[in-house]
Design a protein that fits this description.
Layout lengths: L1 H22 L13 H9 L14 E4 L3 E5 L6 E10 L5 E3 L9 E4 L2 E2 L11 E3 L3 E10 L2 E10 L4 E7 L4 E5 L10 H5 L3 E6 L1 E6 H6 L2 E8 L1 E5 L3 E7 L4 E9 L2 E8 L3 E8 L2 H7 L12 H18 L5 H15 L1 H16 L1 H10 L4 H14 L6 H22 L23 H16 L5 H18 L4 H23 L1
Parallel strand pairs: 1-7
Antiparallel strand pairs: 1-2, 2-3, 3-4, 5-6, 5-11, 8-9, 9-10, 10-19, 11-18, 12-13, 12-15, 14-17, 15-16, 16-19, 17-18
Subunit structure: Interacts with the Sec translocase complex via SecD. Specifically interacts with transmembrane segments of nascent integral membrane proteins during membrane integration.
Protein name: Membrane protein insertase YidC
Membrane topology: Multi-pass membrane protein
Length: 491
């Protein structure tokens, strides 16, 4: 019965892992967001209205060590935003704004600023320390102004608008897809905003029904992809209204505010960068479910610390696996001792099965008494797996979402630890190492031996499409287990 229980438990864990990683999708639309049809129509015609392709003749170019921004003279729209430190699949700087579109359109007193011709005192601005750029346009008796303030080593940009009492600020094109695996990138497309906590609405949810949130206490809003995010943060700490909708692969959104000063963040979803900026932006980093997030955050800090000494995340993962083997050493020793004792108890167990073959309840009682008498816990192997699963899930989350591991190479053919092994070498080696490790463990009977052969095959199949980093971790952990068991056997 204990063997059947262990087998059932392990298979359940595998099923939960597969379901969690590939099928489970948390609720996307925040609870309590009620909208009337009239409000939805308003969202479609104002804050998320589509715009035509923008005119980008002779744009103003802003260059900093982190990015290069293009600002059109028609409407003073952001028509290009390239991140210098991050590359796309073609090796070019990542472009956040879809080609031919512009962000940061403003509607004030019913006037679309995108229809106006703005003038700039310069054509190119090189950001050294701090720099300011003001674009102006004349409308009737008013002189409209968009003032940008840039800081040399920050992704945060200050924005001032004048004049006006209320501003609708539009981001009609949303973010560009930036990853080679476009399908996977689109899974991480969300409209995201902060109101007592970070809330998000998925691309698929917005395709079905536009989103509107009215009220106060919204500190910032934006949209995100797998690795990048754009947000607008009002200086007064309140957005009056949010609208968002999606078509195809784009999330357009808009905000309404009475403030004149804002902060813009166009950059990577890097936990440490966002944490330093503040405004609660760090909560946009997805550490996973609450029970997993504790381990994810610890792993992220551990990786960052190890990387300061070992400038290769592949070797960081190898060292991390070694450290985890040390952490679980007492549990492994206890498990091996238990397995050895259970092997010694096999003759007595067989005798009990023969004696009480017609009385299953009595057989179970006698078996448990035998375990108690010899101080054996038949479930110790399951306990080790239970302890390891949160770390495994946390590691999976970090490898899938941390931008530092995006495109991070290891050695030879492993050029991206966040993607699967293109030749499936690591999963196959991991399966072989896991099988060898299982076969070296003391086996109580033929059933346990077959189970030991079966599980590595299942794990290999599951790990085929996992990020190379997680497979490298499990391969290293299994190889260290082989060395560990060999030394223990010799001892």
């Amino acid at each position: 019965m204990s063997k059947r229980f262990i087998l059932t438990f392990v298979l359940m864990m595998i099923f939960l892992m597969i379901y969690q990683f590939f099928f489970y999708k948390p609720p996307q639309r925040p609870v309590g967001t009620a909208r009337k049809e009239k409000e939805t129509k308003t969202a479609d015609t104002s804050l998320t209205a589509s715009v035509e392709k923008v005119v980008e003749e002779n744009p103003v170019v802003v260059v900093s060590p982190l990015y290069e921004v293009r600002i059109s003279r028609k409407g003073a729209l952001l028509t290009g935003y390239r991140l210098k430190k991050y590359r796309d699949a073609l090796g070019k700087p990542v472009e956040l704004i879809p080609a031919g579109y512009g962000l940061l359109d403003v509607i004030s007193d019913g006037l679309h600023w995108k229809d106006l011709d703005f003038t700039s005192p310069i054509d190119t601005l090189q950001v050294e320390g701090e720099a300011e750029l003001t674009l102006t346009a004349v409308s009737g008796e008013d002189t409209l102004r968009k003032t940008f303030r840039f800081t040399e080593n920050s992704y945060l940009i200050d924005l001032s608008l004048a004049p006006g009492d209320t501003f609708n600020i539009l981001f009609p094109s949303g973010l560009n897809t930036t990853e080679k695996d476009r399908k996977d990138d689109l899974k991480h497309f969300y409209f995201i905003y902060f109101k007592d906590k970070t809330r998000k609405v998925s691309l698929n949810s917005l395709k079905k029904k536009p989103f509107t949130e009215s009220g106060y206490s919204v500190l910032w809003a934006g949209t995100r992809t797998k690795y990048f995010m754009i947000t607008i943060i009002p200086d007064d700490g309140n957005l009056r209204r949010l609208d968002a909708k999606a078509t195809d692969s784009r999330i357009s959104f808009g905000v309404k505010s009475t403030g004149h000063r804002y902060h813009l963040y166009f950059g990577p979803i890097d936990y440490f960068i966002l944490k330093d900026i503040g405004f609660g932006l760090a909560s946009a980093f997805d550490f996973g479910a609450p029970i997993i997030s504790i381990f994810s955050k610890l792993i992220l800090y551990a990786f960052k610390f190890l990387y300061s000494f070992i400038p290769n995340y592949g070797w960081v993962i190898v060292v991390f696996a070694f450290l985890m083997k040390l952490v679980f050493w007492p549990f492994t020793m206890k498990n091996l001792q238990t397995m050895k004792k259970m092997q010694e108890l096999n003759p007595k167990m067989d005798a009990l099965r023969k004696t009480f073959k017609d009385d299953p309840q009595r057989l179970q009682q006698e078996m448990m008494e035998l375990y108690r008498k010899h101080k054996v816990n038949p479930f110790s192997g399951c306990l080790i797996m239970i302890f390891q699963l949160p770390i495994f899930w946390g590691l999976y989350k970090i490898l899938r979402t941390t931008i530092d591991l995006r495109g991070a190479p290891f050695i030879l053919w492993i050029r991206d630890l966040s993607s699967k092994d293109p030749y499936y070498v690591l999963p196959i080696l991991m399966g072989i190492a896991s099988m060898a490790q299982a076969l070296m463990q003391p086996a109580q009977d033929q059933q346990s031996r077959m189970f030991a052969l079966f599980m590595p095959l299942v794990l290999t199949f599951i790990f085929l499409n996992f990020p190379a980093g997680i497979v490298l971790y499990w391969l290293t952990y299994s190889l260290l287990g082989l060395v560990e068991q060999y030394l223990l056997k010799r001892k």
